[in-house]
């Protein structure tokens, strides 16, 4: 019977054997699994987007990862639309796209080529306030004012959505005309956070505009 072989596998021995095998097979030294295929070329990093913003034709070249919010603020200098959470949770960045309200921090600018954008700058001026802006002032619907542009944009959209018959989670009878109630307004405005806590005054402002425009 042959005596047992005294063999010990060491890391250096294993690496040397692996390298020798790879070289013998004509493979790269860094590993047998590698290939010489060239990387797939990437597409363009930026795009030129044409937007109609507050009734004005605008053109902007942005990185493809740029959000609509950053395109408005950083490229078009429309800083009324605010950056709050940057995660679509606070509503400070609310603006309208083709008439529908969106959280602009969650939408890429390149997705909106040819779209119509409305920001807070497009609905009124200090000399000629929009009815909703005037109601917020009259009812003290803001304190620090940071969330106010998004609140006003959403508030105007809420009235239009109800009158268009678009139901919410609290709408009861889907076959009847939707009433503009406190419950409907609160539900539809729930995506807009006011850290100062001016919710009662915001509700009063929206109700006032709804009644005056009935």
Automatic annotation (TrEMBL):
SUPFAM superfamilies: 2Fe-2S ferredoxin-like, CO dehydrogenase ISP C-domain like
Name listed for the protein in its UniProt record: Aldehyde dehydrogenase iron-sulfur subunit PaoA
Enzyme Commission (EC) number: 1.2.99.6
Keyword field contains Protein biosynthesis: no
Keyword flag Iron: yes
A single MF term (Gene Ontology): carboxylate reductase activity
InterPro entries registered for this protein in UniProt: 2Fe-2S-bd, 2Fe-2S-bd_dom_sf, 2Fe-2S_ferredoxin-like_sf, 2Fe-2S_ferredoxin-type, 2Fe2S_fd_BS, Aldehyde_Oxdr_Iron-Sulfur, Beta-grasp_dom_sf, TAT_signal
Name of the coding gene: paoA
2Fe-2S ferredoxin-type domain segment(s): 47-123
Key words of the record: Iron, Metal-binding, Oxidoreductase
Ranges for region Disordered: 26-48
